[in-house]
Amino acid sequence: MTKPNEMTIALAARALRARELTVRELWDACASAAHGENQELKAFLEIFDVDKAAIAAAQKRIDTEGEKAPLLCGIPLAVKNNILIEGKIASAASKMLENYRATYDATVIRKLRESGALFLGRANMDEFAMGSSTEHSAFGSTKNPHDTSRVPGGSSGGSAAAVAAHLAIAALGSDTGGSIRQPAAHTGIVGLKPTYGAVSRSGLIALGSSLDQIGPLAKTIEDARILYEAIRGEDSLDSTTVPDGLYPRHDIQSKMRIGVPRHLLSEGIDADVRAAFEDTLKQLVSAGHTLVDITLPMSAYALATYYIIMPAEVSTNLARLDGIRYGHAARGEALLDDYLLSRTEGFGEEARRRILLGTFVLSSGYIDAYYRKADAVRGVLRREYESAFKEADVIAFPTTPSPAFKFGEKSDPLSMYLEDIFTVTANLTGMPAVSVPMGSVEREGKHLPVGIHLTAPHQAEHALFTLGTAVEKLHTT
Questions:
Q1: 29 lies in some domain
Q2: Of the listed 94, 141, 155, 299, which one is catalytic?
Q3: Which of 4, 100, 290, 333 is the most exposed place for a label (fewest CB within 10 A)?
């Protein structure tokens, strides 16, 4: 029999309704695993004490409503530590907000509470979601459950590791340039970045406001869909949320057209990752799907565009954390010293690097040369993808060019930024994308998971769930 903490949302929900399991037993199984493994994995910054009232309420709801109770009722979830939970510390893994305790729930947390979900703990992350490895947390690095000498990816590495190691049934993360999908690929789980505006960002500590999106990390496509449906929807507290039907409906058939931009896959990808990708495509063709060669010429500039727009928004969003109004406060001999000491002590190296880069590209004399050109490229990228979706239902890449790398292996910032090469475009265009496991590759005797990355038109998450389920079947049968 599957251990309770190793269950999926769907399986646990069925077990709870069949009286094969109680909510308290499910909580205890996850909490026990989390306490037992967290010292090594550092997936959580904090594991919450048992909330007897919430557990009792969830159990009563299941007992009373039965099959009508929400599927998430009684399900323990990990929450990335940049999503506010009232009364809990939300540090964004930074010394700058080390002691900040949230005074309200993020909209996604409120919706999950209404569904009866339980919150197991605060998941570790790269500081302010800046990173691709969770090496940049101010409170210690998260390790990959498949090989603890390697990173879990980032910035939602703690959320991904918690799900992959069965410390939580599922988790919430945030995705600015691949921060849900890349760690999902490195840890062998499913990670979804919804359409920009599909999920409220109210209560999310901002990194890049035009790029950020909250989304699920889960063990299966079905679980990702369940969690996505629970958190999606318009929100009066976030003016960027969008109503259903804002974009033209993208009708799909059970057999789909898969666009493959092979001109972008000619170099920079490990040979065995490329082979796993090609094998997955071949199996999808055998299952009745069709491959379509597409061209996305401007996508070659997506990474450079992202690393201009994102730091610019970082610089703006984090300007408020100055030691005077908010955040860590250090005092020097003069006001300027207060600013310098507070921000130098409060922010880590990667955060300082991106703040400085963003301030530079927004400065007088450079905003036209860099930021406005990048913003123009972003518009071209979006139109390019919209054109490609006239020929294809989804567009496929490998999620990452290589499997999880070892700690310290990418100390050069540029090599680290290349980890996002296939994921940033979905954030720049606002389109939904998902990473689904597509097998594993071997490194030093360890089998490391890799993922296939699927992008769909705006508000066409259903296409991702359909093809993602097809991919899942290839690797679970």
A1: yes
A2: 155
A3: 333
